[in-house]
Specification:
The protein is α+β, with helices and mostly antiparallel strands. Helix content is 37%, strand content 18%. It is built from 7 helices and 7 strands; from the N terminus they run E-E-E-H-H-H-H-E-H-H-E-E-E-H.
Amino acid sequence: MTDGPRVSAAALDLASGETYASGGGEFVTASVVKVDILTGLLLTARDAGRGLTAAERAHAEAMIVRSDNDAATALWQVVGRAAGLDAANARLGLTRTVADARWGLTRTTAADRVRLLRQVFAPGDVRAYVRELMERVVPEQAWGVPTLADPGTRWAVKNGWLPRDATGLWVVNSTGCVTVGGRVYAVAVLSDGHASMAEGVARVEEAARDAVRRCRGAAAPTRAAPAARMPAARAVAAAPPPPHGGAN
């Protein structure tokens, strides 16, 4: 039995630092953990005093842009599996994210997702690689956070979706960075207990819109901090979500 879907959302104005959060609790990451895997890979390479190999770059692109699970598993092994990911996330200040031996069942919170996004979208050449891949996610996976974007502005996203074997209910998550009303927000929505993926996507998008609206409303009405900028690029795709591609 289930008490119905759970949804938790968090939004952060990257310029002012204003935040908003709703819901709570820990959720299974599904494929949003692939951002953690990539940041962990970059830390692993930096610690070894090297850049990414050609194979690692190919896996990273497939993992983020197309949400390829085999590529994620290959990099998960390079990072050091659950122990390696936990160590990397601790360095990044993620206090409520715990890796699982099956990477897609890693548990996290919306607040931790926003903490990670804040670091990914801070200035830095290494972080720019993560951002660049998140900005190239295939159109059919551009649901969730990107649907909030101002027309003609750049967005970045990593989504996750997973039907649970025990219940048949869906985990649906969306995390990313988007420009709304001329300001740039990091947004994370985690959810579970949905009867279908489409139902979950609709709830996630509603929660994302509400989180950003409330975050904007919480900001001071005068003397607001200058907005961060993301260069104009591609518009949000309107393609429906795919029936595959999340963590198993």
